[in-house]
Design a protein that fits this description.
35% of the residues lie in helices and 17% in strands. The strands form five sheets. Strands 3-2-1-4-5-14-15 form a seven-stranded mixed sheet. The protein has a four-stranded parallel sheet with strand order 9-10-8-13, with helices on both faces. By secondary structure, it is an alpha/beta fold. It binds 6-O-phosphono-beta-D-fructofuranose. 6-O-phosphono-beta-D-fructofuranose binds next to loops. The site of 6-O-phosphono-beta-D-fructofuranose (F6P) has 9 residues, from loops.
Length: 463
């Protein structure tokens, strides 16, 4: 293989540049050229295929900084539609014209879902990334547990899990953790710590909403910030249990911090975030989010009198507040754990291509004997019998629904990821740069400005 393409797809994560860097470093050793395709799959729909050469003379370009968040080649949420054969033909032709003999997509479950049609035309592999930690399997036969039911009205299929007969063992997880997750948790745990002291001072109840879609891994890891209660999407809300616990804690310590995963569902299985739809002044639908819906429920249960009785606030509305950690958990400098393993996964993806393992995924495995190590895994083994990839939910055994915190097994799961996840250089970097006087006088210099100077395009046909 002489030249490969690489793209980053889906929502960005902090370790994308590290994954690209790992791939380029390995390609340099193997004397393979790497073209970075600009803005994910969007690039392939563009007849000019904007791209940059990431390793001229087999040296990584200086803009490729593995310690920087985001992705220097940009990302988008565009995917290839398997039913559009003409489009696929065009894409294949464009890549051939560029001399690209293999493709690495760095992405999550959505990216892997869309990869199959490409793998039938060009050797293509995936290096995983996602802050949600939802690309993987709790045990190898998990995809076989899906069934689908056709809706007689819409003719669409609904996918449902059947009961499992598999034993859950941490050593058997496929893709133990994905790059980006550790940094996201680093941010959410810090957020909780900071909210705590203000909740303490002002006798308030804080609800902190974290990302993760329908998977509770980020919420689970946020336990490192010592919230009082963690609510995950995998367990429907038990309002009575929650409110009783909130009362108990508030009586004792005059403040409560609750972490809630954005995909939380109520006891009917309805997403909390969807529940309180309202319209803004322009008439647009506004989704108020899981934390806001939860706040309304707790406000209703406790009532103003509860806070007035203790002279801790004049109303429930004043005492209970919400904060979304939001996109800060997806941005910025990746911590050491993410940088290191993202680079190994990127490097492994190059090896998979060179070994001819089309349609495979580089995965980060962990077991008691070997610790963390990377392997190749056939992409089809992530798919259900109809070929669909389902986002991994947190295994229920990692959470204690009575305590509303990680279970003993959940703690065992988290320890190998986070013990040592922060490097000395991470702390030193902050010390050196946060209050650098230059930050005050110099404008931000975006990597996009420099990368733009390197973009090449596919020459149009003059035939
Ligand atoms: O999948 C990553 C993620 O950050 C989710 O946790 C979150 O729900 C979603 O992406 C947000 O997407 P967007 O950036 O498009 O709003």
């Amino acid at each position: 293989m002489k030249r490969i393409g690489i793209l980053t797809a889906g929502g960005d994560t902090p370790a994308l540049n590290a994954a690209i860097h790992g791939a380029v470093a390995r390609a340099n050793q193997l004397r393979i050229e790497v073209f970075g395709l600009i803005k994910g799959f969007n690039c392939l729909f563009n007849p000019r295929v904007p791209h940059i050469h990431l390793n001229p003379l087999f040296l990584a370009i200086p803009e490729l900084d593995p310690t920087k968040g985001g992705t220097l080649i940009g990302s988008s949420r565009d995917y290839v539609d398997p039913t559009k054969k003409d489009e696929l033909d065009q894409i294949t032709l464009r890549l051939q014209k560029l001399g690209i003999e293999g493709l690495i997509a760095i992405g999550g479950d959505g990216t892997l879902n869309g990869l199959q049609p490409l793998t039938e035309r060009l050797p293509t592999v995936l290096a995983p990334k996602t802050i949600d930690n939802d690309l993987g399997l709790n045990y190898p036969n998990e995809p076989d547990e899906w069934t689908r039911i056709r809706d007689p009205h819409s003719h669409k299929y609904h996918y449902k899990r059947t009961a499992t007969s598999a034993a859950f063992n941490l050593d058997h997880i496929v893709n133990y953790v994905t790059p980006g997750y550790a940094t996201a948790v680093f941010v959410t745990a810090q957020g909780v710590e900071r909210i705590r002291t203000t909740a303490e001072s002002h006798r308030r109840i804080a609800i902190v909403e974290v990302m993760g879609r329908h998977s509770g891994y980020i919420a689970l890891g946020t336990a490192y910030g010592q919230p009082d209660i963690i609510l995950v999407p995998e367990y429907p809300l038990d309002l009575k249990l929650l409110v009783d616990r909130v009362r108990e804690l508030y009586d004792l310590q005059k403040n409560v911090v609750i972490v809630c995963g954005e995909g939380m569902v109520d006891d009917q299985g309805v997403e909390l975030g969807d529940e309180s739809k309202s319209t803004d002044p322009a008439g647009n639908v506004v989704l108020s989010g899981a934390a806001e819906a939860l706040r309304a429920k707790i406000m209703h249960e406790l009532g103003d009198g509860y806070f007035q009785r203790y002279r801790r606030g004049s109303s429930a509305r004043e005492a209970i507040f919400t904060r979304k950690v939001g996109h800060t958990q997806r941005g910025g400098r990746p911590i050491l754990f993410d940088r290191f393993y993202a680079a190994l996964l990127g490097s492994k993806a190059v090896d998979l291509l060179v070994e001819g393992r089309n349609n495979s995924v580089s995965v980060l495995q962990h077991n008691a004997n070997q610790g963390f190590h990377v392997e190749g895994y056939d992409a089809n083994r992530f798919r259900d019998r109809w070929g669909l990839i389902h986002a991994r939910q947190m295994h229920p055994a990692l959470y204690d629904p009575r305590l509303m915190k990680p279970s003993a097994l959940g703690i065992e799961y988290l320890l190998p990821i986070f013990s040592g996840a922060i490097g000395y250089d991470d702390a030193e970097f902050m010390r050196r740069t946060q209050f650098d006087p230059g930050n005050l006088s110099q404008p931000y210099h975006s990597v996009n400005t420099d990368v733009n100077k390197r973009i090449h395009y596919l020459e149009p046909d003059h035939g």
